[in-house]
Protein 1
Amino acid sequence: MTDHRIPLIPSGGSTTPDRSAQSAALVDGLDPVFAGPLFDGRDPKLTGVFMRGSRQVRLDISALPLVMRREVGWWLATCARTGERQAHASEWNRWAVTAADVIARHPHVASFADRPLAEWMTAWARRFHADRGRMPAPGHRLRAEHALRGMLERLLRQYASEVDWWRHDIWSLRLDLRIPRREHEPRANTAVRWGDITPVWLREGTKFYLRLQMESGQLTWSTVMQHRVNTARFAAFTAERGIDHPALADGSERSLRALALDFGTFLHHWQRETSGRSEVGGSLQPRTINKNLQTIDLFYRVMTDCRTEAAEALDDSRWLALTDSHARMFRSGDRPRQREVREADERNYINDTDLSSMLTHIELLGLPTEQTRTVVRDARQVELAGLGHPAVMRAWLIQAMTGRRASEVLMMDFEPLSDIPGLDTAAVPEGGMVARLRYQQTKIDAAPNTILVGRDVVEIVREQQAWVREHWHLGAADTIRYLFPKTTGNRHGTKSWETSNYNRVLKDFSRHLDLRDSRGELLLYSRSHRLRHTKATTLINAGAPIHVVQRYLGHLSPEMTMRYAATLASTAEREFLALAKVGRDGRELGMDRRDMLDLVQLDRRTDRILPNGYCLLPPTRSCDKGNACHGCDHFATDRTFLPDIQRQLAETESLVASRQARHADRYGEPMSAANVWLEQRNAEIRSMQLEIIALEAQPADSTAVVRGAGVLGRTGYQNTANSPDHKGT
């Protein structure tokens, strides 16, 4: 339902505003082009102010009084300055006519701020019906409301600038620069609306409490949204129980404990509503209930300590009724029991087959909408159109390659790459790490915010930079704030993609593609946090130490890292990662010790990369049989090594024939089959023959890894080596 409740005067504001003086202050210092009363979208000074479809229409506000003309001019100047909005000249011409009608009916109205949005919409619909003899279509009405709402919200905040920021019922970082914020806020474009929270004492008290927490640095803007949700549930509880006093009950510890337990029961029975395209519903998860109880608990702890200040600031003496019992009414035992460290869930891990399939099809996301691509769905070829989101495609690829959180990638600086001191990138082999990537670490204070990346990530960053320069009409040396700028309402590139919109595009793409995993379930690109779990699991299963993976993921504790690493037996045996080799020719590399540590530690398992395959021996074990790989069940190989194994087989057979001939010449009799040397060579030959059979049975383009194919070539396995039930797999 549309919310029309934009308050005219926040608490503490003047009840008799001087609109003439206020509007004069609005336009003070503005370019004369915004003085009106006529605005021509073709004027170069108004470039970007009007929507493309209305630039041939002149906006005429000459019928409006001076105050309203100033307000419209100020709004157009604001659109030009911020780049967040574009005005539709035709819509504003209709609003000018509507406002003139309202003034004729109500002469005391001098400003757009003198009436709430709901009344303006009623007047607009009345005028529309008078002109066309019918009611407006929902879409037409929505566009008109959108046009006025944008101006009205900002105008009211401007007129009430003397009011403390936290007293407003709409909290928005773009509307009020006084709201505490970090340099990079993941949800900077999201507004928090308090108007529908009742009772009033809870709404105003929560705003006061959050102001204390934010200004002291205890809470950040990103947490305000969840506090608003938790407060709304507590508001529903107070309404259902008929509570209309900050003290909640008679003040006794017994009654407050009973009420706290009652609220916990209330949350356990809470049913989440589904709205729009949301698929989330049902009861609350234990972790959500925990957070909600903690929110209200902390709220009453702080408000009890600050009850005198709250009563004065809110002009409500009822807050003085809080006692120490209110600070103790919630106990840790009230909250659902949870493991201190949640175990890794293998369902968050994407196996190689599924990840390869997702990477193969991701290009369709960035393909222009007028182009198509053939994909295979249920063994049938299907022609699908592109979605035209190349920036989202590149952001997802960076997530897949680095394991970063979505917000960390979306908020990266336009130039996030820097050199690794002392590293000669020209000498780095393919797949090696060549640069340092800086991302926005906004979740964990004091956590690392750089990682080392390879040429593939560097190329994606450069492609995205070129795309941004083209679409924002930047020169070769020009930059904007973010590498992934929001593509609408962002002419100056000052806002990044938000995770919610990013996930929405990825979810739409997943449904459009309809890619299925081995269980037949939809592969959701929007569950991009699984890429982080996958990266952590892959690194640990490849032998990287926990403390190195911890730093790579930007965690402050190894316990958090282990939540991400599904180091289960089945996964550890199935997955293998061959990371880039680092030069070891004795040269002194003048690079940072931390960079050297990452390069060496992340690469430490390259001793398990063999000339003809891989050694899957667990990292904690060592091997003293370097010449017995082919018959070992820890040896794995694939078709790329087939020529090497065939060559080694031919060389071994030639060596055996040569040694047998020399033995016969020297001793006058053939070499015995029980000869220790010959027995070992024959075992190697049998193992390599079995490996070749297994690899040749794979398709020519197969990337599958065959493990233990030569085990049956060992001495003692000859009777089963040719059995079809005992071939290496």
Note: The chain has four domains: 19-163, 170-334, 361-526, 635-726.
Protein 2
Amino acid sequence: MSNEWLCGVCRKSIDGDYGAYSCNKCSDYVVHSRCALAKDVWDGEELEGVPEKDYTIQDVKPFDMISEGVILHFLHDHHLLLEVNILYDEKKLCQACDLPIYEAHMSGISMKSTFSLFYGGTHHKQEKKMAMASLSICFSTRSNLPLYSSTRHRNFVIAAMSEDPIREWILTEGKSNQITKISSIGGGCINLASHYQTDRASFFVKTNRSIGPEMFEGEALGLEAMYETRTIRVPKPHKVGALPTGGSYIIMEFIEFGGSRGNQAELGRKLGEMHKAGKSSKGFGFEVANTIGSTPQINTWSSDWIEFYGEKRLGYQLKLARDRYGDSAIYEKGYRLIQNMASLFENVVIEPCLLHGDLWSGNIAYDKNSEPVILDPACYYGHNEADFGMSWCAGFGESFYNAYFKVMPKQPGFEKRRDLYLLYHYLNHYNLFGSGYRSSAMLIIDDYLRLLKA
């Protein structure tokens, strides 16, 4: 490559062995790959390599982890896919540190970069040329890359080398032409969550780096079942799949939440409407096993609610506590309760209603119109009262219950059964988070054993 093609940062000739970047929006700007990744790179109008005072480094991470092995870097608009177990190759250098990429660095990023060059520092479009070059960045240097406050020359054109199923779905079945922004919006203790904005719509995406699609398939079926009742608002699920680097994802409707906690009476009324509308002819259970947090929920169909709740809910959690902690005391007492709890359901008509399954404050929100939205379900068909099992951290008030019982009338013995449904979730928290929840579970068991004289 001729020496007359210069870098806008260091003003030295472009080396074709390493390639260069050009700005996607500012067609007269080009820099070396290594200059673009160096700590002193900047994006200024004069292209002299010395930043003006207005251009300062922000304390922001240089990339977002989209999923396992896939990142979105601040230097470009497209995803980069991780290339693992690269053998030592003296000729394959990292353009950030100029050292060979090899197995001791664990891994690196590899992608194709379209770049343009300008002639002698002039800004005439007819003198631009196009070329292709490979770019590799080792992980020992990528985390040290800075982010600049100026956005004038940040949009470099770099395309990922391998398939991104999330992007592919959004740009095909999602009927979008361009992904304009991807923002991390946190997540729970299990999954990562992102907001994908496009020219047509917005999507909410959850990813998990280690668990296959089965978990998200259960969530999607639950969301779809609740959505089909046309009662309370839930995000419509669109797609579940596996990630090429392992793990899984779910794409669903993005709902913009409002700042208000909304109307509890409306939440109670709409939850009652969902329970009333969502019925199953197959009995108690669900189409697939799913999860409550990260704990499996066994949903094999049963015609008997007391048997289902005793074995598939309380019994499963008690066995888990015994096997995980060696807790034979809670196991033995808990099974005594299961064997004697039938009297708590005398004169009660129990229909298999569609339940959210994990209804606590973190899974309840309100949209821009203050309409209630319920999220992250652990759905199954069960006794409607079981959906109050997380009320100890849901903040349901009197207006909630009054509105609910106008739709689904309170049945005899409701207060006596209330703690029985709390017990399932206390046991699950004990198994998930440790002994801090054991005493609450044991207290409920002991109280029922005294009440039932068992």
Note: The two ends are 88 Å apart (CA to CA).
Protein 3
Amino acid sequence: MPCRRCGRLTATAKGKLDEASSQPLPVFAAQDDVEERRWVRALILAYLASLNRSLFAAKCLVEVVVEMYREGVTLDDAKVMLSLASLQHGGQLLKPMDEDILLSWVAVIMIALQAVGVPLNPEGEERMKQQGRQNPADDEGGMIAGLRGMVRVSVDQFLAGTDLFRLQLQQSMAAKMEGDGGGPSPGVFMLQQNTRLAIIALEVVRGMGLPTVVSLRQAPSPSSPLQEGEEPAESQPAAQSSSIEQQQQQQQQQQHVPCQHWVPGFVLACDSAAMSRCTEAEQQRASAVRLLISFMGASQGWLYPAWDFVSQCMECYERGWAAEDVYDHLQDEEFAQSGGLVINVARVPGSFNVTAAMFGRWLSVVYMTMVQLGVVFAGATRQDGWAWVSGAAQMHADEEAGSTLEAYGLADFVLHTLNNEEQKEKAGRPGSSGAAGGEEAEQAVVEGVLARETPEQLRKQARMGFVTLEDPELLPTSPSVLIMSQQISLVQMARQLVLQERTLAPSSTA
């Protein structure tokens, strides 16, 4: 059954992964709704990654909603898309509570975009005309109406000079002054969260350099010195701006708010048609971003982003991109997060980044699995070590031998895991294969990504040693066991997808 807290699958979910074994990612019945599948995939991946307290993932979520808004996708459209996708997967994509939270976040972002006058694309304008609306957030009922006032206040705070850093500092100080050891109430927590999301949305819009009706040039804070020749800006609510000023701001917006090196690329990574028109460097950047977002969700135990991570790794491999080249397209600050599996707090320059190391290790595991399975790598003759991310061994940065030793150790781990899978098939399931039914798919989950929920298989392995000390709390809570079991799951998933491709290859070429 799904976990009551988060809807993740556990070992008792017999038969529910039959579809996942042959279709790791959602497949809709109709073939003409590619756009809807793209939005659903992007929303779910970014949302699950955002639950790991990643600012970068939150910005990617905003990037997705901005593109949806500009193309005229309404909140009702997003709700229908998510509902259909959930039905296709038997309700295992998102639990109802997660779906409601995601939709509320989409509503907050859309209201913020409407408040500052983000324009629609021509396709979006045409879609709004057909629906008799001005913009996707033009709705006076339901969730949008309830959140409009709160977002309006957040927009005014941003225009008055409040950025995300200052807002987080204010909220942190307010919590300390209240002295509530139990933390803020759910209502206060939700209000603070939505306020931060609105501020993040406006910062992303400003970073993307999009034209807006209301200027996003913030008034300097009292602690910020004015630049030479700069006059203090008045902190007026957006609602009090005159129409003449708005027109002037809209005409001059591109000059006043240039693009601030906006390079996340998550929306591009979810659009295969747009990816095909980009340079190789842009494609590698977009793929790296999508891998990082999927990793952040999968590291929490979500099966959907885990499948996406493995499939994207395989795509990068088949394109002939070295693992190190993909890894190098990510910046240090994009790995920053707290909570979840990996914790990264107060990192100083030159220190070891656990999140980046784990990401590099996951990428290397999938690449090495492909190597051991005999999948041809197009760039093998051009460079050495193309299946290993040396950034995952930063602790041995001054010792090349240490990095090499770690790479060989990981390769042995992958080889032994594959051998164990083959032996299990021959001994216990002679008629099964990597493309077989739900029992093996569930076995991959039991031994891998969700080992916290289902440690029974690991207990069986422990009994094979000389001495067994039963500690029921060790396996579910041990970080080392969790990390190893996740890597086992990555090998199993990659093996399963490779065997599926080999099984389907003859029929597709016949």
Note: The chain has a mean pLDDT of 74.
